[in-house]
Prior knowledge:
single chain
Amino acid sequence: MQSLWMLLASFLFSIMGVCVKLASVDYSTAEIVTYRGAIGMLMIATLVRFQRGTLKTRMPYHHLVRGGVGVVSLWLWFYALGKLPLAMAVTLNYMSPIWIAAILLTSAWWSKQRRITWQPIAAILMGFVGVVLLLRPSIHTDQVMGGVLALMSGMLAAWAYMQVRQMGLLGEPEYRVVFYFSLTCAVAGLIGVLVGKTVFSTTGEISWHQLSGRGTMLLLAIGVTAASAQMAMTRAYRLGNTLVTANLQYVGIVFSSVWDVLIWKVSLAWLSWVGIAVILCSGLIATFYNAKTNRKPIPGDAISSE
């Protein structure tokens, strides 16, 4: 089930990406972030009301850190997309599984524990090779700053994912994690609109782009798919092996590439199809390893499935 949750999250995030790309023609990044957060909040609050749950939390600090880190990562990611070739920006952002592996290895070394096996880490590295083959990134001298920011975005995303897992292990349900992250996105996006209009507008007036039927549908799709994907991703990190879950994120690039072919008629080179095959193989290897580990626990495995 862990694998299915992460695959579902990757698929929903890819749909969200398509909608963001289409909506960005008519709406600013800050507006999209605001609507994404607000719609996600409304969706989660409605579910909580029907299920008679509560949004009261014992971990306000954890939510603040997770939300702040996640929003900064999101903003850096959008900025990098505007400064870099898409292939390079996506590749650097999808280095978050590598950073997660580095964090876990450093933590194990610091605590003098040697419980992380090499197989899932090898699968992550294999997956990243597949990403590079699929996207074949390149960067120029004047794009170094954008590359650094994209790299920082991936690092912060890894930190946010680890925070999500920690809150899950402490008993915080998925809907609260997603609700407070959506709240942070809505507030940060609103601040971005206010500051952007005040600083860059010649009149100093604050205005929103008018909602059209097409725009409303796209923004609703962004909010619903983002919140649903966050729920699935949070559950995956809470329930399963951290490295295996991180590795399955790479499948999101495969989904995005398929949307490029179907919607924008992008033609993929044969090397890109090789990259897709490598990504899928890395996910299968990680999943089978995790299944084998669960059937026959390995003594001292620090990140076995919960």
